[in-house]
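Uracil-DNA glycosylase: structure, please.
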Amino acid sequence: MKNVTDRTSNPFGLRPPFDRTAPDARTAVFGYGDANADFHLIGDHPGAHGGKRSGIPFTDTDAGLAIQDIFRDLEFVSGPTDEPRFENLFGSYIHMCCLPDGHQPTQREYDDLERFFDAELRAINAHILLPVGTAATDHILETYTTQRRRFDLETDDLHAREIRGRGFMVVPIREPDEWESGDRERLVERLEAILASDYRQTKGVATTVG
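Here you go.
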């Protein structure tokens, strides 16, 4: 079932009740891209992976642009870096609201926004979930797989690894500023292999909003 919407940013009209920004600052960086995407790229928050200026996930910051560059090479992304076009790709954050520069969301702030992220993830209903960094990977493995206890998030073993979830395939991505030699290539090779496979068979069960 396809989503019928012509909205690229915040296609489902989410309105999270959270604002800790200055009056003239952006309040949130909403999910962005193809609402019928097979690949869902999931970051931490706007201060970590960008968008406080552009309003688009994975822009503005070095980390965000490094991730965007991977998907540009694989032809998921085209157009200007600060206003990219996503094809078969949706990008969003587990904590979409903006915070003052230098602030990290507290656990309570993550929890306050979790239901909005979950509703969007289930509405997109992608086949492949791509969490970036420790916070996003921890949340995705804990919430959408039964395998969180098997993994140590402090190692690089999860980077570009395929993990079966509850109706999703999860491929964690290490924080770009922690990449070592070969990490970028490993991720590109993994994504190329998935694209060459019948990856749509990875969905074992249907998921719905609710």
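Notes: The chain has one domain: 32-202.
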